[in-house]
Specification:
alpha+beta; FAD/NAD(P)-binding domain; eight-stranded mixed sheet; six-stranded mixed sheet; 20 strands; 38% helix; 28% strand; binds arabino-flavin-adenine dinucleotide; binds P-hydroxybenzoic acid
């Protein structure tokens, strides 16, 4: 098989890149290790920056998002049982869109099918070859048969555990990592959300987050020890813990119900540089991971897709190579700013096991300062709604 751009990974970044390139007349093949059903069964991100919304609109997959998604003009932060609101619109003139990653992925699959996009599922043993040459290729097996795709570029959209990042020589890669000593236990329930906007709560017992997917589908998280055992968390224990950590007025409103999904995510900050090696470009979780506190993971992946799709379109339209040559530097500038924001919010809102009394007072002072300072709130707001892809001027 031959294509212009071979995309490894059929998650949101691989599918969106394929859709944007196909609409620009650039041929792609997507290789996905799992079945479509498995990919669509994942419950992950819930908040889209407006830049991501605009990118999905450009890709022609925004109709359902605008019909069913919920624009949010702000969010609540809570500490010591008292909440306050950060007004995104007042500080930035922008909002975010609450629309689940699962739905985004479903819309992307639908659009790919409508354009007869080539997505090969349940492939195994994907290996990348001749990345520093002019004729890279990818080998893999499918239904027991060895296969090969010759291409001009490879986009590694295969997430944290995929093969693309590791195809860059170890001597070239610079990796930065912070693993947090806690995780998030997430629950999805067919219950009305406790609040019309998200609530991020700092509490002595640990962090909690109230989010949602729709009027009758709520998404909640509580911080757990890094080695928490999911089987030790039945629904009653989860709801009790959530109630203790959120402000009383919200706890009084909380409607509980059976969990329809329950999982624990480990939290880490991670960046691998560079994001380009010869004909290989890393995109999304393949290159970087953020703790979900700042709702940046999916949005950073879409930022990379913005840069790479722009760069490849310029290359194929006019042979202009500045975009592909500058991809890694451009993408990493925005990645590191989101890494900083996600780390800062995580540090401010979570309980660290060996936290000292001084650390505790620092968190409280940080939150009190934020509550009283329009400048501090404007800074949080501009990071949360999403920094511009291309800085003005
Ligand atoms: P993905 O990991 O989504 O997709 C990579 C794809 O590559 C997968 O489909 C995988 O099957 C495939 N693949 C892997 N190895 C392969 C191989 N060898 N061959 C072929 N295909 C291969 N972000 C938020 O903003 N908010 C959240 O609340 C949030 N919660 C999360 C919870 C969990 C448990 C996880 C793991 C992540 C969460 N994230 C969250 C981050 C998440 O949304 C990612 O940022 C987003 O999925 C990134 O998309 P991709 O880069 O496409 O990577
Ligand atoms: C979610 O709805 O899953 C969600 C929202 C905001 C976050 C993390 C997760 O920061």
């Amino acid at each position: 098989m031959r294509t212009q751009v071979c995309i490894i990974g059929g998650g949101p970044s691989g599918l969106l890149l394929s859709q944007l390139l196909h609409r620009a007349g650039i041929d792609t093949i997507v290789l996905e290790r799992r079945s479509r059903a498995h990919v669509l069964g994942r419950i992950r991100a819930g908040v889209l920056e407006w830049g991501s919304v605009e990118l999905l609109e450009e890709a022609g997959v925004a109709q359902r998002m605008f019909a069913e998604g919920k624009p949010h003009g702000g969010t609540y932060l809570a500490a010591q049982n008292r909440g306050f609101r950060i007004d995104f619109e007042r500080h930035t003139g922008r909002r975010v869109m609450v629309f689940g990653q699962t739905e985004v992925t479903a819309e992307l699959y639908k659009a790919r099918d409508a354009m007869q996009g080539q997505i090969l599922h349940e492939v195994e043993g994907v290996a990348l070859h001749d990345l520093d040459g002019r004729a890279p290729f990818v080998t893999f097996t499918r239904e027991g048969r060895e296969e090969r795709i010759d291409c001009e570029f490879i986009a590694g959209c295969d997430g944290f555990h995929g093969p693309s990042r590791k195809a860059i020589p170890e001597s070239v890669r610079r990796e930065y990592e912070r693993v947090y000593p806690f995780g998030w236990l997430g629950v999805l329930s067919e219950t009305p959300p406790v609040s019309e906007e998200l609530i991020y709560a700092n509490h002595a017992r640990g962090f909690a987050l109230c989010s949602m997917r729709s009027e009758n589908l709520s998404r909640y998280y509580v911080q757990t020890p890094a080695d928490a055992d999911l089987s030790a968390w039945d629904d009653d224990r989860f709801w009790d813990e959530l109630r203790r950590r959120i402000p009383e007025d919200a706890a009084d409103r909380l409607v509980t119900g059976p969990s329809i999904e329950k999982s624990i995510a480990q939290l880490r900050s991670f960046v691998s540089e560079p994001m380009r090696w010869g004909r290989l470009f890393l995109v999304g979780d393949a290159a970087h991971i953020v703790p979900p506190t700042g709702a940046k993971g999916l949005n950073l992946a879409f930022g990379d897709v913005r840069y790479l799709s722009d760069a490849l379109r310029a290359y194929y339209d006019s042979g202009e190579a500045a975009g592909i040559d500058g991809y890694s530097e451009t993408a990493l500038k925005r990645v590191w700013k989101s890494e900083r924001f996600s780390w800062q919010l995580t540090t401010m809102l979570h309980r660290f096991p060996e936290q000292s009394a001084f650390d505790q007072r620092m968190q409280e002072a940080e939150l009190e300062y934020l509550e009283g300072s329009p400048a501090a709130q404007a800074s949080l707001a501009e990071n949360y709604v999403g920094l511009p892809f291309y800085s003005r001027g």
